Amino acid sequence: MPHINAAAALQISMLLFALPAQYFISQWYGMDSVERIQVTERIIASWSISTRSYLSVDAWADRLKLWLSKTRTCLYVGLLILRFRNWYYGEKKIKSDDSEAKPHSYFAETTRVHSPKPEYIKFRVGQVIIHKRFGYSGVIVGWDVKANTPEERLQPRYPPVKQDLKDIPHYQILINKANGFGKSTAYVSEEEITIIMGLEVYHPDLETYFSGYDGSKYIMQPWLKKLYPHD
């Protein structure tokens, strides 16, 4: 880019000023004396206002005070936002830490890795089952070595004569929508179900857990495989 010195800048400014100056002069000489006086008074008034606005120390002092006032307001609001953000995320972290310290997930929905897998657990995640009593089909999406259910739900489900069922493996099931069964999921004991081959399951959440079906079982998504590495 060519270098422009002060003399060149002055020449360019004069050329740019020449056109409006010529226009003003032509208009000026086309006016009568009264119009010239009126135009002159307007120019002087405009110059006086501009001088008071931009060349006055008091005007610039007022502008500075206004700017400082706005700056202080912005800083105050910014501090309030920062304090709220720190409080919010601090509270969120505390709640998160509390939830991690006190796990409360039930029905085989924990994020804990199920390893090692006890030999007495017969079924695997991805297998299709039939409920012996109710006849619905579904696919296993998780298991627990024993019932992981709030005690208030265990009492009516397992009366005194069936209390031993609480201590056998339990499975979380996505129920096949093709059965027309009222529920979409179930949490059942091992003795209530049996495995079936060659039956596909239809459920809105199926793709969340599985990537496909190989004819005998459903293939787990990577995140689910990490939780059940031995299935």
TrEMBL record:
Lineage, opening ranks: Eukaryota, Metazoa, Chordata, Craniata, Vertebrata
Alphabetical list of Pfam families matching this protein: YccV-like (PF08755)
Keyword Signal: yes
Membrane-spanning segments: none
Coiled coil: none
Domain called Hemimethylated DNA-binding: residue spans: 120-221
Keywords: Signal
Gene: Fbxo21_1
Organism for this UniProt entry: Ptilonorhynchus violaceus
SMART domains reported for this sequence: YccV-like
Gene Ontology molecular-function annotations: DNA binding
Name the UniProt record assigns to this protein: FBX21 protein
Lineage top rank: taxon: Eukaryota
Residues annotated as signal peptide: 1-18
